[in-house]
Structure formats: C-alpha cells, structure tokens
Amino acid sequence: MARVTDTVAALALPVAEAAGCSLWDVEYVKEGGVWYLRVLLDKEGGVDILDCEAVSRTLSDLLDEIPVDAARWFFNAKPDTQMEFDLGLAVREDSENPIYYVEYAHARICSLLRAQEAEGVSVPAQRDVDMSLLS
C-alpha cells in the first residue's frame, strides 16, 4: 500500500505547507474492516483544529477531482515502482489518459453484447465458459 500513501503524500505536501504546517506522515490503514486514510501534520506551536480543517477540506476537494477509475489505475498500474502522479492526466477525458482505453473497451464490449442479445445470440455467463481453451 506504499504507493497510495506516497501518492497522497505528494498531493498533501503543498496543501500542508500552504496551511503553514509540515507533513509528518500519511497512513492508509484498515481498522475493523474499514480503510482509513490519515494525513498527520506538525507545526511549531502545535496543530490546531483550524489547521486540520484547512488541510482536510483542501485535500478532500483535490482527491474528489480524481475519478475513481483513474485513481485505481494510477495507484495499481505499477505496484513496485516509484510513481509520479499526474493530476492533469488523471482527469483528462481523452486518449492521453490510459484509463480512457480501459473505459472505451468496457463500453465497446457491453455494446457488442447488447447487439448480440438483440439478434437473439446467447452469450454464456463466464462461469459457464471453459477458460482452459484460451491457453
């Protein structure tokens, strides 16, 4: 999960600095079956609730700009490598964004399945297909 924390840290660092804080750590932990993302801050004189609110709101808005599918793609595409997260690329809706091809392929496959169904062709469920024929 280091990739998620590294990416969030890269996004959170300028947000924390703008609020006059330093970024201490980013944790992505599972507690009681629920995943939590924690951004830990430090500040000379102590971090108060207003600092937490400023960083939390800004970072939340920033993370909300990234589509879920794009975030999954960028966070999981290369699990063992250092990643530079390109927010501009992640939110683009054109062929420069790698998730565009995945979404296009999904939409095209669904369209083909609907067309086959409309012509009365039965497409079996995955569980009913002998996948060993593919290897």
Description:
The chain has 135 residues and is α+β, with helices and mostly antiparallel strands. 50% of the residues lie in helices and 14% in strands. It has helices at 2-18, 49-64, 68-76, 87-91, 98-118; strands at residues 22-31, 34-42. Helix 1 crosses helix 2 (49-64). The chain is elongated.
The helix/strand series, from N terminus to C terminus, equals: HEEHHHH
Low-confidence stretches at least 5 residues in length (pLDDT < 50)? none
Give the strand order of the largest sheet, numbering strands 1, 2, ... along the chain. 1-2
What is the count of β-strands? 2
What oligomerization state is this entry in? Answer: single chain
Give the terminus-to-terminus CA distance: 32 Å
Residue share in β-strands: 5-15%
Counting DSSP H or I runs of 4 or more residues, the number of helices is 5
> Rg to the nearest angstrom?
21 Å
Mean pLDDT: 83
Properties at a glance:
50% helix; single chain; 135 residues; two-stranded antiparallel ribbon; 5 helices; alpha+beta
Short description:
This protein has five helices and two strands; from the N terminus they run αββαααα.
Secondary-structure blueprint of this entry?
Layout: H1 2-18, E1 22-31, E2 34-42, H2 49-64, H3 68-76, H4 87-91, H5 98-118
Helix pairs in contact: 1-2
